[in-house]
């Protein structure tokens, strides 16, 4: 193996240059038990702070709540393999629900609160949900009780008069006693723990199954990325916990490391800055559009908020341009930008920069995650390539998903028989072992780090009686990264307007999936097999920028 790049000529594999992680040897182990016993926390230390109310949960309170909720879930009949659906904005209770569910060997599945009723209903039906956690404001988005066999609903609220549903607050007050029995089946590291849905380019929603072992490996590999080895760090949860990024960081890894997290119920730039100011936050995980906002408004921000406590920014969810990084560093010279690359399917595995020196290597996503292997594969020949050659990135390691939920065909397309995950990203690894993301083979549009599948929107557009063909592409935008733009062929004689199209789509999808720009054409460019030539349309759309 080349010690500089990590590349091994004999098998054309890149090996991580990071210190390997030491995984627990016990086969029978759930991630909640691992997290609670991995570190001996100071029970009086604050685990979570609600930025909007100031409510605080100590680690002692937190773990007592996890135990109490686990008891109640067991009493309600939740068992190993059952799926529990969690629909909520960020909350100090979010991690309690996740860890309680997983402690029983049940599976947690999360959803974006912005999703439509139709999208939420589909996920509940597809995952065969046995129990739902949500907040009162989101109850109208749930399917009718009769249509889901009266699946129990627990409200994450402190208001006992809001409805007849049981509340999480009541569950957290459950005190174990000598007669308490938790019915808990044997849970192994290979059992499913989370089911996170992400749409593919076909428009078919795919559930990513991650195991307890995947999440344990995630926790073990997060120390450097989240600076958890440094004392007195205070983190702020800006990215959504329903997303793999937020779930991995705030509901799992930082709990394991005994870190204090300030939780923003919903993202608002001023509220985030106020929370950093008030709670002396040192570490800010975010996505590129937030970084852009900070850089563009730095002078105004510094006049209003004291951000001197801030030491690190971790940017993930989408690539960060060199220009944006330079502008931010010019305005916030005392803050170190760290970057990370991962997928839902890789559970945090990918690459990251962990030091100031590494972050100065412009354009890189960082060094390969500890105990993870990588290949760069030629998309035409299937040949594994060496340093500085571009191809599709493949990853293999202990964090890689088990597969897609009830979708063997998609699993076989994405996971090889010997465990390699085909990421769908065009990358290269340089002479020093740093990963660079060049382009996406996948056609997903990245709106504020949310994934928007073009095929889903195209299918919807084709249901309009005046549209006979459609193509949706990503249109670049400094504030949100990318947004969906539609090229449409109108039916002969139609005078359909772009505004009417935008309204038609907006009524049927979550806000982040909305079409923001429309162009009418006489035909959609396609290859001989009928596949849309999106690159041609992207070039056309951006030629005047």
UniProtKB/TrEMBL annotation:
<dbReference type="GO" id="GO:0050563">
    <property type="term" value="F:trans-feruloyl-CoA synthase activity"/>
</dbReference>
<dbReference type="InterPro" id="IPR025110">
    <property type="entry name" value="AMP-bd_C"/>
</dbReference>
<dbReference type="GO" id="GO:0005524">
    <property type="term" value="F:ATP binding"/>
</dbReference>
<dbReference type="GO" id="GO:0106286">
    <property type="term" value="F:(E)-caffeate-CoA ligase activity"/>
</dbReference>
<dbReference type="InterPro" id="IPR042099">
    <property type="entry name" value="ANL_N_sf"/>
</dbReference>
<keyword id="KW-0436">Ligase</keyword>
<keyword id="KW-0547">Nucleotide-binding</keyword>
<feature type="transmembrane region" description="Helical">
    <location>
        <begin position="92"/>
        <end position="114"/>
    </location>
</feature>
<feature type="transmembrane region" description="Helical">
    <location>
        <begin position="234"/>
        <end position="256"/>
    </location>
</feature>
<keyword id="KW-1133">Transmembrane helix</keyword>
<dbReference type="Pfam" id="PF00501">
    <property type="entry name" value="AMP-binding"/>
</dbReference>
<dbReference type="InterPro" id="IPR045851">
    <property type="entry name" value="AMP-bd_C_sf"/>
</dbReference>
<keyword id="KW-0812">Transmembrane</keyword>
<dbReference type="InterPro" id="IPR020845">
    <property type="entry name" value="AMP-binding_CS"/>
</dbReference>
<dbReference type="GO" id="GO:0009698">
    <property type="term" value="P:phenylpropanoid metabolic process"/>
</dbReference>
<feature type="domain" description="AMP-dependent synthetase/ligase">
    <location>
        <begin position="41"/>
        <end position="405"/>
    </location>
</feature>
<comment type="similarity">
    <text>Belongs to the ATP-dependent AMP-binding enzyme family.</text>
</comment>
<keyword id="KW-0587">Phenylpropanoid metabolism</keyword>
<protein>
    <recommendedName>
        <fullName>4-coumarate--CoA ligase</fullName>
    </recommendedName>
</protein>
<keyword id="KW-0067">ATP-binding</keyword>
<feature type="domain" description="AMP-binding enzyme C-terminal">
    <location>
        <begin position="456"/>
        <end position="531"/>
    </location>
</feature>
<dbReference type="Pfam" id="PF13193">
    <property type="entry name" value="AMP-binding_C"/>
</dbReference>
<keyword id="KW-0472">Membrane</keyword>
<dbReference type="InterPro" id="IPR000873">
    <property type="entry name" value="AMP-dep_synth/lig_dom"/>
</dbReference>
<comment type="pathway">
    <text>Phytoalexin biosynthesis; 3,4',5-trihydroxystilbene biosynthesis; 3,4',5-trihydroxystilbene from trans-4-coumarate: step 1/2.</text>
</comment>
